[in-house]
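Pipeline run #58 for the internal structure catalog. This entry was flagged by the ingest filter as a single-chain record with no existing model, so it goes straight to prediction. Upstream metadata was stripped on purpose; only the residue string is passed forward. Reviewer on rotation: M.T. Logging verbosity set to normal.
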Amino acid sequence: MKIFNTRTRAKEEFVPLRPGQVRMYACGPTVYNYFHIGNARMFVAFDTLRRYLEYAGYDVTFVQNFTDVDDKMIRRANEDGVTIGDVAERFIQAYKEDAALLGVRPATVHPRATEHIPEIIALVKTLVDKGHAYEADGDVYFDTRSFPSYGCLCGQNMDDLESGARVDIDERKRDPMDFALWKSQKPGEPAWDSPWGLGRPGWHIECSAMSMKYLGETFDIHAGGSDLIFPHHENELAQSESATGKPFARYWMHNGMLNIDSQKMSKSRGNFMMAHDILKETDPESVRLFLLSAHYRSPLNYSQDQLRQSGAALARLYAARARALFLLDHAPEDPADADGAVLSEIDAAKEQFTAAMDDDMNTADALAALFEMARIANVGMGGENAVSAGTIRRWLDEFAALSGVLGLVSKKAGDAVPEDIRAMLDARATARKAKQWQESDRLRAELKAKGYAVEDTPQGQKLIQL
């Protein structure tokens, strides 16, 4: 498998630090609100990476944090007249519910910043003791000039970063690019005791402390959105490697941005879309398929038309599985003439899928392989190409495994068709058997109005979701 490493700006062969094990960290949400559809892309992308690594046989430890103390949290708590703990609990629960709808599995560990204050303070103290950080009136800043490689992740040198970045002017800083590791308490803010007085951690140090606690000082993959490369991940890398003297993350992965109707998503444009709202109106699995429809590093454009196309594509996958199950009910156990050819096609589609995923997790091409599997079910396993039950079971097993890597076609076969639709289909079969053609046509039209087409085949009715 090859992964594009942001730090080296090249695809590299993925070789984990420990054979057979992968330790990865992905930045989680700041839980002051629901997460937006751009966040959802990141969560789905790296959930898919985790799934594929597990499919490939790795034991994966996946850590995704919750940032539950920062300026936005404090502002939201003050606006709502509650504690930041109340805000955190509300939106952590909302994250879990919305992520589950998208098929994003819980991380191995979901650490919260407020539960790791001792580890954060210890890391800040190490940086101070090693001369990489300094205290100023109860605040502690990281000395960016003390880390010669600063800028290596985003690919810019210190002088260019300083001239181009928007930084807070603070005379207490040795350099404008220095950033806060610890912030002294301001009126009305939560605070913890520390060697520098009451205060709270800065954003960047939280992720370093939590990732190193659960994954070690050096781990395999650090992932996040490309908007986090600078300053968040750049600062994480600098402070972590300054503290330990060791490489921090061996591979840095970043997903591309998501646009709304070909425009950058922003509150000022009024096109800032929360996944929570989209999931109320759209099948979550269709949203997931849409988010995987482009390579994770490429820009992706969100529109209602794109969502509709994803819904139709998902329906084709479910229809292919339904056809395979239908054929299985009528297939002989004895070997059939077409078995060898179909098994070769299944193997080729599986190889196409793994080649795509091994090429820097190219989910767009992996989806193409999944639709090739669907073509095999729809064209290659029925009629003149009738195959044995064993071949159909092999197709079902491989289809389940590959679609499972992408987190798609996750509904059980019995759950894929609603009860009322199934009842109408049975009623139509009864009408046809009784030669009640007018009633049969009426039921077909009603099913179409509900989004289902019926195809009459020699083996019986075939239901296709439109």
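catalog note: The first strand starts at residue 2 and ends at 5.
catalog note: Residues 304-330 form the longest helix (27 residues).
status: ready for reviewer M.T.
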